[in-house]
Amino acid sequence: MKTFYACLLTFAVTLGLLAAPDESALKELYQKGQVLEGMYRRPVSTGKGPEMLLLCGGRPWFANDFAKIFIKAGYRVNLLNGVYLAGLSGASIKITPDDPREPVPLDGITPEFDRLSHYKIVFVNLIAPENQKKLFTPERVEKLKKFVSAGGVLILTFHAPELPDALMPVGKSVSSDEMEMIEPGDYYARRPADTLFAALPERWKIYTSFRNVALKKNAKTLSEITDAGNHPVGIYLAEKSFGKGKVIYWNAEFNRLAQSRQLCNWAYASRLVAAIAALGATDANVDLEKTLKKHIPELTPKVISRAEVELKTPTFEMKETPARVELKDNTFYFSNGYKIVVRGNKVDVFYPGAKKAYIRNMRLPWISFPKKADKVDSLTAEAVAVKRSARRSTAIWKVAKLSGGDAATIEVVANDGSAYTWKFITGRAEIDGRVFDGIGQQITLTKLPSHLLSEISVTYQVDVGNQKFRRFACYTLPRGYVEYDMTGKVDADTGGWEFFGDGQPFTYLEGKDAVFSEFVDRVQATSCEYRVSKGSELAKGKMIFRFGRVKAPQTTPVLWQMTADAKYNQNDDWMAMYQFQRKMLRAKEGFPETFARPVAGHRNTCSDEEVEAVADFAAKAGYDFFRLTKVPTEMEQFAEDHVLEYLGVPKKYGMKGYTWFACCHSPGDSPTVLEHPEWYLKDEKGNLATYFDHFRIGDVNHPEFVKWHLGVVDGMFQQGLGSVWYDMGGAAASGVNFGTAESPIALTGQMKIFRKHFDFGGWVVTEGMNPCVVDGYIFRENDYHDPVGNEFAMLGAQIDAAGFRCDHFRLAMYDIFTPLFLDGKVFDFDDFVGAQKLIDEELAFVRPVNELLAGGMPYIRETPFGTSWISDKTAAFFFWDGVKEFSAKIPAGYEAYSLTSQGKTEMLNGVLPQTVAPKTLIILKKSLEK
User: Is the pTM of this model over 0.85?
Assistant: First the structure.
């Protein structure tokens, strides 16, 4: 196993920082901080507006998030986080907690104090008193006095030492020999009179400790601390002018603590600190509104005059349509009207009745060999970037034979002895009453004498009067749901995505002549891409079947390329295709139908006692699943007693647990990697493969690794676990082991692991999109396309979301749920403006939605007012918009059961209401269930 410095050497060379020095040289560089400089770039100002020098201790990621508050508000911030605080941050600067050695911090303070004149504001936060005494040397204090006197603003927190009177608005109280700390209690801060603070409540609970201080001469109090009776007991915010500038003292600090109620989680915290900074930059064009944490759904329900809908059970059927194929010269004629023309190394496909070929210039499939291991080198798991490398065969391929009969078959050979057959059949799919007809192509590589197979690729052009292409992908840029203009008016490129890891498991091209959609008939790592060039009417498609590193013979799944009558811009049709794929592929794998569910949870800052309280509340509110967020990064630790005890908390309250778990990766030098390196993927050079130059990747096709992995999972399920979020599940599907003679692609073994989860009685969520389980990608608002109005594209997902703006009722309409943290409700704490109202609104629907989902896998359609659901035992109408006159045709055996609206549920006794308010859920049940 590599030593720590050898690992750093690899990392540094990868970044291009070093020209591969030896290990001893690297150790010297590391001690000097030069490697750390590469991991964390030199401090540089970011943003636009007044220049701020921000010194913030704590973990570097926390300081980075703190700096973003000011950048968002309109400041230009140069952050000195723990990496550049010369050891004064008071917290580790390791990249991950399991790194074997603490890096040596760098000194960014000295050079920045030599250029204080560049800044308008200097803000010091989260540096302990003993370290601030080291920070504020006499020489630096003199520089600060010069900085403030010239018009600068210095902002200090309650950890500031007693600096010279000229700089300190406050000092020790007459009742104390020092600036003693008062522990948190029933204390409140009054809102400052300045209009900068107008958006804050008139007073708010202080969640931090504060100092017992007295106002100094020529200083003024901006905000007082009061007791529960609103009587002043201290100073919260004070200011003192000095020369042309000022010093602001904030009797608190921005920190992350081990408790639910704390300042950094508070809805108005960002607005508060941005306003404090604005006290020193009143001439600047800062936008404090951007810092207020609030839930802002951009769609408002309305009331429509009339709606009549029909609720019906969907039809799903996929079958081959047997046809005799006659061969005349170079053309295949199918008895059901299809025609395939072979032109040298190209193929054109004519659908029945079409005057032109819908599929044109389809080239002979490419064969590619393994070259290099895939590399995930993005800095975060929420922005996966996989670099793939396969070497295309340079052999000369040619058509050797054409034959008809039950299929159109093209036999292809190469001058190196390789050979494959390319077979075409026809089929029909009925999807929710809509008929898709088309061809299915399948490639069987029969001979590959000198190489292992990596990929088989097919390229072609499509012309169905192309209008737009619909695509949802988690990690392919641009991320999220996008509609591409395929008319040829502009260049368009969907980027490549994977059906079983990254994006939707089908293509969907809408045209004036027909809708064209492609999918595979079994689970196989399959990548797709579409693009069109400006001025062209032809969309260029590419389909890649990925195998890993395997010998011939190998066969692709059947790739169905199907058309249906054109229905431009029909969300229901796109949703129907997605739901059809899920049903078909799960049945093919023998998986049960599984769907997203409402999940409660707690923030990972909660104490153990608070977790218990939140779990108790969630169970009483009607939740069946409880998310556990305080989890380790190593798979091994999930087998430890204290972790298992934590995982068992939901079981105490009648719920099942839902937790993060590594799909197959182990951090750093974890015990399993050290003891069993043969369980992990290797790259083409024989080194252990990594994610982000740190995590080792387990081989899910290695039986011993899988046995160990599932043993850990089994222990978790015995503790009452009900579901696992498989982190990096999408990226893991593409894993290939270069350390073995052969290696099937990881998706093969991954599906076997998923099957075991269902055997345990659980359900699986993957970070990515795999139609055989539940989509569980991490939705970052700044990274994804705006989903408001297009929520249908996230159909059936269990997503994690930061700053999500979608309305929870609209999400539930499409069987989309985000874990709802309830500690704010339990402990009367708002982590964003309007949190209590939103939580109350969702809580009103938890029991009805769980009752609805108990009826089985829902089939979802859009309606004029929202959506309709139907399953084996239940059905529903979700009314986002209200309806003045409502009527519905419902299948025999279903009866109106209950109506939930405005936080109340009433029984319907079989009678549907004629008038329905917005945000109403009506549940129907089969009459036999009454």
Answer: yes
